[in-house]
Specification:
Distance between the termini: 18 Å
Strand order of the largest sheet: 1-2-3-4
Number of domains: 1
Number of helices: 3
Shape: globular
Strand content: 15-25%
Largest sheet: 4 strands, antiparallel
Helix content: 10-25%
Number of strands: 7
Structural class: alpha+beta
Order of helices and strands: EEEEHEHHEE
Length: 133
């Protein structure tokens, strides 16, 4: 497995397997961030999202729909996406840091947690879910 650094990023695929992307952790940023490179698009999320999402999934105790959505679209209630932007999550709102690109939390974080051995993710063409391990 990759180190998850800029020089050795995690190589991931979205839950449906339709898109490849890379992520790495930048601990020199303040706060530490996750950089998600999808083609020429760069998204950033707070790195604490890994531990926070895993803890939340453990609290849920069952499968949770991913519900990926762009920033300007509403996220379906009860989904990973909705939690990643909810005012009652541990950061009090968006884990995404780049304005206009703060969404898609439910698209790009679940495969990372799966690769890290923290969660299981379904891999259907649509409507995927995840749960903590």
């Amino acid at each position: 497995m990759a180190d998850g650094t800029k020089d050795d990023p995690w190589k991931l695929t979205t839950a449906p397997g339709s898109s490849a992307y890379e992520m790495y952790r930048d601990d020199d940023a303040d706060p530490p961030i996750l950089v998600c490179q999808v083609g020429s698009t760069r998204l950033t999320y707070q790195a604490r999202a890994i531990d926070d999402l895993h803890a939340w999934l453990r609290e849920q105790g069952d499968w949770v729909p991913l519900g990926a959505a762009d920033e300007k679209k509403a996220a379906a209630d009860g989904t990973v996406e909705a939690w990643g932007r909810a005012e009652d999550n541990p950061v009090g709102g968006w884990y995404g840091l780049r304005n206009g690109y703060r969404g898609r939390f439910g698209m790009y974080l679940p495969p990372l947690l799966e690769a890290l051995g923290l969660a299981e993710v379904t891999h259907d063409p649509r409507n995927n879910s995840m749960r903590a391990i």
